[in-house]
Write a structure and sequence with these properties.
eight-stranded antiparallel beta sheet, 13 helices, Alpha-Beta Plaits, alpha+beta, five-stranded antiparallel beta sheet, Uridine Diphospho-n-acetylenolpyruvylglucosamine Reductase, domain 3, 4 domains
């Protein structure tokens, strides 16, 4: 047993630290197209104290560390680019506080979104948080590390906009808190303290989030999915603008896909309306279709496809594995809503060149302030040719995002390099200085957001 492995065992116990190859294999790959990258150790701390001890050990030995949440980013962001220690945070999953009147919840960052949803449904049915549209195993910390978005993006914004406070273990092993919790005033706001935006969106390259306060929102008793369809993609931005103007929808998504055939070359706009009574839902339907979208219906531009109860909240990650080979990966982009038509056309062309049925989706963020647009590429894990086609399509799409002046969302290493090449020189210098100050030994998820 190596000295590092023995020290990890001393910290967390023999059951939660390993250097055995059969267990490291699980952590050497994710669900996307990235080539396997092997860690030398994996450790699963249960407490902040244990996590601090692991980080201090890594800092002293200059061993790279990679924090891991649910492992669902698909883009290789939690693969060990330079070996070292994978820190699996899923045992740090406590719910610490729920303030019903203040509408916030304080949790450990390794908790899954599914666990939060289940807990709130059982104990606080009038409250909900923003789910990322990923499988329920996706973790809070992992979602924040990539500037995640979720099903309350319209009208509330990114999930990182819903943070009231953070506790972070720094690369030195020290703890820092941000928000009202930093001055001992509780976990209810990030304002009006000085902004220290050093951890959200950094993929764990500056520190490891351990505790989070998230805003909660009213959870209505009834939910329904109202589907509106248009044939011409040029009308999608206008329709989304009209619906968002009402300010009534809980979620707003436009999608088109080659499979199933009924969706091919059509654009389905999912309008999630909620209410505490049938009368409230009926009013929202009336305002949406009889008032706001009436001109599109009368002119034949679009029409209502269906109105049905939506018992579960939408998981957009379910929409793309048409190869039935167990794999898909996507490029996400944050773009203006007006970019939807070009994104759809160019994306379907890339899919066609690589023999992949196209699947595109745009989720409105804010009141049409922007859109998370994604291009999904399915592949068969047992067929190297389809994996290569998907990987090439992903790289083409990263380049497309830069060409149309979008911003790549949760970019893999290839996409990060494209963005860094275009980054403002002043921002690059500041990123480099921040990394140097916080992580002088370069141990935190090295390879991610590396500035030469």
């Amino acid at each position: 047993m190596s000295s590092i492995q023995q020290e990890l065992v001393n910290i967390v116990g023999e059951d939660y630290a390993s250097d055995r190859r059969e267990e490291l294999f699980t952590y050497s790959k994710d669900l996307g197209t990235s080539q396997p990258l092997w860690p030398e150790y994996v450790v699963a701390p249960k407490t902040t104290d244990e996590l601090q001890a692991v980080v201090r050990l890594a800092n002293e030995t200059k061993t790279p560390i990679v924090p891991l949440g649910g492992g669902l980013t698909l883009a290789g962001l939690a693969l060990p680019q330079k070996g070292g220690i994978i820190i699996d945070l899923k045992r740090m999953d406590k719910i610490l506080e729920v303030n019903e009147q203040g509408r916030y919840i304080v949790v450990e960052a390794g908790i899954s979104h599914g666990k939060i949803t289940s807990y709130l449904k059982k104990n606080h049915p009038n409250l909900m948080h923003s789910e990322p549209g990923a499988p329920p195993a996706a973790t809070v910390g992992g979602n924040l590390a990539i500037h995640g978005q979720g099903d309350l993006a319209h009208p509330y914004g990114f999930n990182t906009d819903m943070v009231n406070g953070l506790e972070v273990v720094l690369p030195t092993g020290d703890i820092a808190r941000f928000g009202s919790c930093a001055v001992g005033s509780g976990w209810y706001t990030m304002h009006p303290l000085p902004d220290i935006g050093l951890f959200l969106g950094w993929n764990g390259a500056t520190g490891i989030i351990t505790k989070v306060s998230l805003k909660l929102y009213p959870c209505k008793k009834f939910r329904e999915n109202n589907m509106f369809v248009v044939e011409n993609e040029e009308f999608v931005p206008d329709v989304l603008f009209e619906i968002s103007h009402l300010g009534m929808a809980e979620d707003l998504i436009a999608t088109s896909s080659e499979i199933p055939p009924m969706m091919n070359r059509l654009h389905y706009i999912s309008i999630i309306n909620t209410g505490d009574s049938e009368e409230e839902l009926e009013f929202k339907r009336h305002m949406t279709f009889d008032v706001q979208l009436a001109k599109y219906i009368r002119s034949g531009v679009g029409g209502i496809v269906s109105l049905y109860d939506e018992r579960t909240r939408p998981q957009v990650s379910k929409s793309a594995d048409w190869k039935k080979g167990g794999g898909f990966e996507y490029v996400g982009a944050i773009v203006p809503v007006s970019f939807y038509p070009e994104c759809y056309r160019r994306g379907s062309e890339i899919s066609g060149r690589h023999f992949i049925p196209y699947t595109v989706l745009g989720r409105v963020i804010g009141s049409c302030h922007s859109m998370m647009f994604s291009w999904s590429y399915a592949f068969n894990r047992a067929d190297d040719a389809t994996v290569k086609h998907a990987r090439d399509a992903l790289h083409e799409t990263d380049e497309l995002v830069m060409e149309i002046n979008g911003t790549i969302w949760k970019p893999a290493i290839f996409g990060q390099k494209l963005m860094l090449e275009r980054m403002d020189p002043g921002a690059l210098r500041l990123m480099k200085e921040v990394k140097k100050i916080l992580d002088p030994n370069g141990i935190m998820n090295p390879g991610n957001w590396e500035v030469d």
